[in-house]
Description:
The chain has helices spanning 5-14, 30-36, 40-54, 68-71, 86-92, 114-118, 131-137, 149-152, 158-162, 232-245, 254-263; strands at 22-27, 59-63, 74-76, 98-99, 107-110, 141-145, 168-179, 182-194, 216-220, 226-231. By secondary structure, the chain is α/β, with parallel strands linked by helices. The strands form two sheets. A seven-stranded mixed β-sheet has the order 4-5-2-1-6-10-9, with helices on both faces. A three-stranded mixed β-sheet has the order 3-7-8. Strand 7 (168-179) and strand 8 form a beta hairpin. The chain is globular, with a radius of gyration of 19 Å. 37% of the residues are buried.
Amino acid sequence: MKSFIDDFKKCFEKVTETSDDVIVIQSQIIPIASYYKISGKKILQEIYNFIIDLSKYKTVMLPAFSDDIIKFKKFDLILSKCNTGSLPNYCIEKKEFKRNLSPLHSFIAYGPRANEIINLKQDTTWGKGSVFEWIEKNNSRWIALNLEWRSGCALHHRAEELTRVPYRFFKKYHGSLYLNKNYVSEITETKYSYSLDVIPKFDYSIWPNFFKKNDTLFYKVNDGIKMRSALAKIIVQRSIEFYLNDPYLSIINKENVQRWVESKK
């Protein structure tokens, strides 16, 4: 069996700095399984072990977003599966990781600063008091493993709220909070959401063009492992510049959405 974890570590070292205190990883492991011809379970275990070792010195975060509060009107900190890949779903079952109280856009974290993240009290998903704000203010490093920026950087959405793009509005989502099937309390999350009256068709492939030289790091070991990274403050700043240039630039059905926005004024 061809080993992959040494290649993974090599790639990780190429896209990080020793000064990085907080690492956020958004991932896709299918290319690893395909290239190295090994099971997903083996890959997840090896990366999990790597993260545990890394977390002795750095705080590691994984996006663990879920739609359960929309679909089922409930959110379970342990049992609500996330739609951000198999790695966070694997890690979320481990006792080391903690998940913050954001039903729609939670993160799991492990390391020296995990309790800071868990104790955050957000006003909105991407705004004041949110994990997204914390990630930016602490200048964390965001890594996209086997993902392009357009699909591997949820932090970009923070700029949509900060610039108040006109096709979104603040909406409250309500549900019940559970911990491993045990009811805890009612819970609410306010998100800067788009309207279902005219659903925007998003194309997030353009905003990464606003990155400047040396804003990002990229390294490809082979077709199974490639990573790109950038500091959170840079990602948010470039995303803000993108939306200030044209708030509709990431929307394919721009004219329809603009007409809807105008009709609501």
